[in-house]
Amino acid sequence: MKKFIYRNWTKVSLILAMVFMITACENSFESGGFDVNSPSNVTSFKINGVAGKIDQKTGNINVTMPYGSDITAVKPEMVLEAGATSNLDVTMPVNFTNPVKFRVVNGNLFKDYTVTTVVLSPIKSFTVNGIAATVNDVSKTITMTLPEGTNLTALKPIIELTEGVSISPASGQTIDFTNPVTFIITSNGKSVNYTANVGVPVTGLVVAFLGTAATRAEITNMDEITAADWFFSTFSGAKYISFNSVESGADLSDVDVIWWHFDSAANLPAIAYKPAVTISLKNFRSNGGNLLLTSFASQYVDALGIVPSGKGPNNVFGDFPPNGFVDANSWGMSFVGHESHPIFEGLTTYENGKANLLQGGTFRLNHTAWWFLPEWGGYGNGEGWRNQTGGTNLASEAWDNNLDGRVTIAEFPNTETNKNVVVISMGAYDWYNEANSSGVPSQANEFINNIKILTQNSINYLAKK
Q1: Considering only CA atoms, which of 209, 245, 446 is closest in space to residue 332?
Q2: Looking at residue 33, what is its pLDDT?
Q3: Which class in CATH covers the domain with range 207-464?
Q4: Which of 9, 89, 201, 333 could lock onto 395 through a cystine, CB 3.0 to 4.6 A?
């Protein structure tokens, strides 16, 4: 009897041990190795004596540094739980300009952390008539668009500054913004110049939002709804045009720019290919009209003859709800070599010619319809693409300084008969960030203003061509 019981108890012990190991693995690894009360926690993290805010649930460490701080080579101070080690060498200077990731290990447990460091802007806010400007600390610019008809010759900006900073001209002073204005910012005896560009929309501009729904109120795709809401709140001369109305012969003669933002499906809808529709839109261009095509609508350049047959976007993909994912990295673009192009004016950049559009940690569907150059389509590089499509590639992925990898923003310039077309085609161009499959809302995208500025600049640029 004892022998029988011993054998069964041995089996039970083995089963319990296996269950414990499986549970331990699930707790340690399937959730990214996170356990809020883990012995692998970072208990304190400082940069130049400034303590970071640690979120043990996400592993995010946020550090806000005073204006003027140099974070390119700093030795951080870090305290770990007893017995824990990290692969971040705190004895060596670290560049915190971009997020820094590291892992903390304690026995068979680990946690991954990401340090995001922000240096305070000298300008907390810059408003005119209650409208906020975009302050770019990399390019040292202040950019804003005021309502149509605003008199730029006598405006009083209200400027809120970071502690210890002064500015000239001062807040509340009456200023003529007809031309760019230089503001001198001084802190700790050092001064730097910021250039303010204040503009108004093109006078009398008539713009249209093109959609597959019969009316704007019947749009169902949340990305298209969000884009349309912004569009109609920004342009006083905005109107909605359905594909059905275009097919029926809608008068487009008074429209300067048509924007088609299509996010609903990777394949364009059948109605877009109907002869009556394509003929009408081709005539629209021939008569001086301009097109902005974004997200999956970028593919329309082929059907409208904007590019030679078969030379439209060759890499089209993306998820649809409830699918999608969260990436810890922020997604952006490189427009190196085209920094002075009007569509990029006023963007918040993280280095010269590079800007983020989608914040790390934001839920995304990655709706993409771009040209993949190196291996596909026989283009080889940017020059080959330009020669074969007749377009100008204005932007690529953030790592691509030569614009030879992906064509994410392109312009198809004027010919004798046709006006301009601009396409914006990367997954980072995301107006609405859905909840995940469990219904948990996405965090807000802190770079959404770059998407708005890029779109408004593109429409104004097209209208002036």
Answers
A1: 446
A2: 46
A3: alpha beta
A4: 333
